[in-house]
Every structure is written in C-alpha cells, then in structure tokens.
Amino acid sequence: MGREKITVIGAGNVGGTTAQRLVESGRYDVVLLDIVEGVPQGKALDLMQAGVLVGSGGHIVGTTEYKATAGSALVVITSGVPRKPGMSREQLLEINAKIVRDVVTQVAANSPDAIILVVTNPLDVMAYIAYKVSKFPRERVVGMAGVLDSARFRAFIAAELKVLVENVQAMVLGGHGDSMVPLIRYTTVAGKPLNECLPKDRIDALVKRTQDGGAEIVTLLKTGSAYYAPSASIVEMVDAIMLDSKKILPCAALCKGEYGVDGLFVGVPVKLGRRGVEEIVKLSLTAYEQAALAQSAAGVKELCALVDRYL
After folding, report:
1. CATH number of the structural domain 146-310
2. What is the per-residue pLDDT across 194-208, written as a single tens digit (0 to 9) for each?
3. With 0-12 CB in 10 A as exposed, 13-18 as middle and 19+ as buried, what is 278?
4. Check: CATH 3.30.365.10 for 5-143?
5. Which residues are catalytic?
6. pLDDT digits (tens, 9 = 90+) for 118-161
7. pTM (predicted TM-score)
8. Using CA atoms, how far apart are residues 251 and 230, in angstroms rounded to an integer?
9. How far apart, in whole angstroms, are the C-alpha atoms of residue 19 and residue 67?
C-alpha cells in the first residue's frame, strides 16, 4: 500500500513549514494548496529538491486546485489572516470565518472521508465552523492549540528549572491563548508536582507567559507570527492520528457534555488515533479548574454565536 495523502491548506509560514516537516518524515504524500498562484508550486519545488539532500522519500505537490487534494486522508487548515500586533483574536473572527467556511466546503466535497485538523485562529471557533460546514462526525474534526500551549509551558518550565524538557509533563485545557487553563496539579517534573519545584509566583509568571506566548512572538517578529512550534505541534497530532498511536494530547474537540461543556470545541485531553478523536479523556478537576474551564467555554460560545450568521 502506498503512502497516504495529507493536504496542507495555506502555504504561508505555518503551512509551508508543516509541509516541510511532513514530507521530510518520508511517511506521507503531501499536497500544499494556496490561493496565491505560484507560492505553493514554488515551495513544493524547493522542498522536492531539498528531499534529495535530507534523504526523505516523501512526495510533494504544490497547487491552487482543490481537485489535486481529492482523496486526502487528513487535511490541515492553516489558511487565514495572521494576527497582527495589537489585534485581538476576536478581530480575526469575521475574515477568517469566511475563509475557513469556503475552504471546508471544498475539502468536504473533494475528501469526504478525511479528518480535518484546524489551525486557523481563533482556533476553537474555526473548528466549530469546520464541523458545521463539513457535516463530518465529531471524531473527524479536531483543532490544534493545546499541544502548542503545552509545549510552550513545558519549554518555559524546563528553562526555569534548568532541566531537560523531556522531564517536564504538562496538560493545558480550555481556549487557546488568554483563556487557557493550565492544570498545575497534572504538571510534573520527572514525576514531581510542579508546585513542589517552584513557588506560586514563579508558576503564575510562567502561566502568564504561556498565555501570551503567541503575542510575545508577534511583538518580536513585528511582521508575522510563530510558525516553528505551531508546525511541530501540527505534525505531532498528524502522526498520532495517521500512525494510530492512541497518544493522549490536549486538543480542541467537540464536547457533548464532557467537562460540563456541550456543543462547543474546547481544549480537552484527547486520545488520537486513525479514527481521529477516539476518546475525550476525563480528568478530575478542582472547583477552581472547572470554573476556569467553564469561563473559557463561555468565551468560545459567545464567538460561535457571532459566526453562526456566516454558516
């Protein structure tokens, strides 16, 4: 059996870097699609030539035509307008809602059995749009946010404690960005609870830096947003799904009563496998954590009500 097809929609920094990581793994045939003629073709040609040097057997095609994506096993949606300095996630809403709606309409028509992995911000709402427009079962629509937030949190903890990042385990729930809910009780350093390793004020500072992680990079870059860590986070999820690894990762999934959330995409621990979202893993939360998650979900609900008019 040949390699399965993964389509990446949006050939900007996140999409281009994701395509690079996927094709260089040698595990997939990759289609990179963008509406800007020449950009996906040019990046695909560059990556094909790089493959000679990095020894990957992956195949890549750049295109502006959705028919080239037909029969994809998984579609990553990165297309949309990136957040600019001073811009709130909410300001992104209207523009990106329409883009994602139109993209998903084409994806569902060309790859009716695909799993959709949404990356476009505001993430939780865009996943909701993808679910509504595609009419796919909830197992086959998932959003990437928690993997990135957890990676940022782990990186900051490891730097603070001067330990190998592999020793740090973290779980982040809720919305992406300001309303994320880090579960400090489930965050450990070589098995030791974080609150036994650091005082509360340092933990709070690291949480705040994680919440502002994307904005900090936007401010530094001035003309763009993060893409190395986001693309690595996407590939972590793609591999978990395509390799059927049953890895538990924090992802934006459609909750139907889990964690007291109904009908919304919020970040929860998810078991990922070849069917997509195979299980929402239930963790016991304190009253404080549950309230923070409810508040995060309320923010998502508010935005979903605004985008219903575009669907």
Report:
1. 3.90.110.10
2. 999 999 999 999 999
3. middle
4. no
5. 176
6. 999 889 999 999 999 999 999 999 999 999 999 999 999 999 99
7. 0.95
8. 13
9. 18
